[in-house]
Amino acid sequence: MVSNNVPQPELDADDDDPVLEQRVVSLGAIKVLSAPIDTTRASTSTSTLPTKALVDIGGEHCRVSHRFWKSIFNRYRFGSSTFRYFHPQEVFKRICEVSPQDTLRVVVERHEGKPPTALGVSRPDQPIVTIEDVERLAGEHGATSVGYGGGLMHCTFIPRSGEKTTAIGADQFANRFVLDVPVDGFGTPHIHLALYRLLCSNGLVGYHKAFCSEVPGSRDPRHTLERAIECFDHGDGYAAIRDRFLSAQTSWASVREAHTLYRQVAKSEAISGANKTRALESLDRLTGRMHELYGVTNMESLPARRQRLLPVKCRTYDLLNFAGEVATHCAEPAKAGPIQAWIGATLADEFDLEGTAEHVPEFADLFVKGKAN
Hints:
This protein has helices spanning 66-76, 88-98, 131-140, 221-231, 235-249, 255-267, 273-286, 290-294, 304-309, 316-330, 337-348; strands at 19-26, 30-33, 54-57, 60-64, 103-110, 117-122, 145-149, 152-157, 166-168, 171-182, 190-197, 202-205, 212-214, 252-254, 311-315. The protein is built from 11 helices and 15 strands. Mean pLDDT is 85; it is low at 1-11 and 35-45. By secondary structure, the protein is of the alpha+beta class. 33% of the residues lie in helices and 23% in strands. It has 3 domains: 19-122, no CATH class; 131-243; 248-348, no CATH class.
């Protein structure tokens, strides 16, 4: 995508070179196309906003992403619950009556052979960072990986102080940070602390506010991003993550922790087919097959308090490494955010059975057996 003399890191193999097109339109030119609202469900649903809606942008039908709606809500200060009572077109019409001259920049994502998708909207005069800008920065500053997904670029870097390889039990980890950059004009970049498990190349990213830093907006976002990449370091943050991993080694995982990870993998759109089947079977084996262990067919039937008190057959540390392995090796990297978010949320909170295991677990390199290519 970028032609210059700087070596560019390749996009992850799961990406197929998307093209992002910027279009400036009035709000009145955006029409929401959807099936009629099911009024029998309106009283129980939190929102009647169709999940499979299309939007007509200047005569072209586009699929709708969650970033499109989030940016619309953010710009006009209302929420999805408004659509419990009013059709989107009614809301848009009212806004146009109040602000008839208001225009929006809509970024449309195009993949060869697929319908276009409407991403974020923003002010036409707001500076925007492009995929090419991020690829250039990644190449100039030695990014170890670069990926794209749904309006965001994800780049992994070594912090300013270096990798600082450290041992956590029998494993070796190195410091990293992941930079998420919106390339559709909506939102600000964020930096997430990460550890890199060396032997099996697992990336464990702390997608949680406790391990996240926001890169402030500016009139020159490319320069701001470059300064953030060059200067970022967080010794206290990395120390906190390492301490949590050390504690995870001596904490039995609870049924609740194991089950929430199982559900996250099961519903993940980043894993499909044989990879998902193998991942779920491997997790079931790792935890000691919870259904057989406690004689229940549905883990949801156990009260929440009991789920927190009942252990499974592995440590919390094993679950964290399993999640990192699945997100790195089994899932599409650009869609693995929810699984990495499970890691961040688990690390940020106190473990259900913290400090209940006397010994650290035996070394294990990979947990998912027989992964499909």
